[in-house]
Amino acid sequence: ANERTLSIIKPDAVAKNVIGEIESRFEKAGLKIVAAKMLQLSQAQAEGFYAEHKERSFFGDLVGFMTSGPVIVQVLEGDNAIAANRDLMGATNPKEAEAGTIRADFAQSIDANAVHGSDSPESAEREIGYFFGSEEICAR
Ligand code: CMP
Questions:
Q1: pTM higher than the cut 0.90
Q2: Residues 6+ apart with CB under 8 A from 134
């Protein structure tokens, strides 16, 4: 089914200047970018986005990392976009990510892991709404 998912290109990948290489993988896989912006997240924005992890031991490091530099937040649309994006990203820990995935090719560590993608239709809906109003998402 046609779906939308929230994708973030994280500060490590922006700093490495591989935004275009990552976008190219989405495009080659048939996903369309229907909304996108570059943002420097505030601490409150990062904490709110990752609220489901607030009791986890890595929460402070995660928020610190996500506010360490600009990110690209974007909406990808396509057939099974949520799973398709997760296949392209590879495992959360780049050491476990399959060869040829974004994290295997561009990520350093479980924190600096290049990209984020929604993990379910419910989280996609919440995460897209967290960063975008409906008027910011384009039909194409
Ligand atoms: P992301 O998909 O953005 O969602 C939460 C992030 O927390 C995850 O990617 C990782 O970058 C980071 N993280 C750090 N440590 C862990 C861990 N032990 N388990 C899961 N995520 C972790």
A1: yes
A2: none
Distance CA 40, CA 8 (A): 12
Give yes or no for residue 92 CB within 6 A of ligand 1: yes
The token pair that represents 85 in the structure block? 């994006």
Which tens digits make up the pLDDT trace of 77-114?
999 999 999 999 999 999 999 999 999 999 999 999 99
Element (H, E) at 130: helix 121-131
Nearest by Cα to 53 from 131, 121, 134, 110: 110
Establish whether 116 is a catalytic residue: yes
Looking at residue 108, its pLDDT comes to 93
Q: What's the chain's average pLDDT?
A: 98
State in Å: Cα 110 to ligand 1 middle: 6
pLDDT confidence bin for 18, thresholds 50/70/90: very high
Residue 130 φ/ψ, nearest 5 degrees: -65, -35
111 CA from centroid of ligand 1 (Å): 6
Answer whether 105's CB lies under 8 Å from 88's CB: no
Minimum-distance ligand 1 atom for the alpha carbon of 65: 11
